[in-house]
Design brief:
Structural class: alpha+beta
GO molecular function, one term: endonuclease activity
Strand order of the largest sheet: 1-2
Number of helices: 3
Helix content: 25-40%
Low-confidence stretches: 87-97
Protein name: HNH endonuclease
Distance between the termini: 40 Å
Strand content: 5-15%
InterPro entries: HNH, HNH_nuc
Oligomer: single chain
Organism: Galactobacter caseinivorans
Largest sheet: 2 strands, antiparallel
Pfam family, one: HNH
Number of strands: 2
Mean pLDDT: 83
Radius of gyration: 14 Å
């Protein structure tokens, strides 16, 4: 049995589905900082990670409509706070076109 919620088979299926759907929809850059996402390699600053829009600790669910993709750096720096609205991010900071890890 998994020791935490994100280690369960159900979460792994939802996570995989969300990442595949984001790729199919053409999401190539982090919506928060604009860095090019790496869907193949994990645990690097630009790795694509599934993030809860409304955190689980604040009553958010694992439903696909409560999930988004962020780069690992943005996901970890956000912590348990709610994700800012994408329109707010884009108004404050235009998307970068090059990777900061190139």
């Amino acid at each position: 049995m998994a020791s935490n919620r994100t280690g369960t088979a159900q979460w792994q299926r939802i996570r995989t589905y969300t990442k595949r759907q984001a790729q199919a929809d053409g999401l190539t850059n982090c919506p928060a900082c604009g860095v090019q996402l790496d869907y193949d390699k994990g645990r690097t600053p630009n790795s694509a990670e599934v993030d809860h829009i409304v955190p689980h600790a604040q009553g958010g669910t694992d439903a696909v409509d409560n999930l988004t993709i962020l780069c690992r750096r943005c996901n970890q720096s956000k912590g348990p706070r709610s994700a800012p609205k994408i329109s707010t991010i884009l108004a404050a900071k235009p998307l970068k076109t090059s990777s900061r890890w190139a």
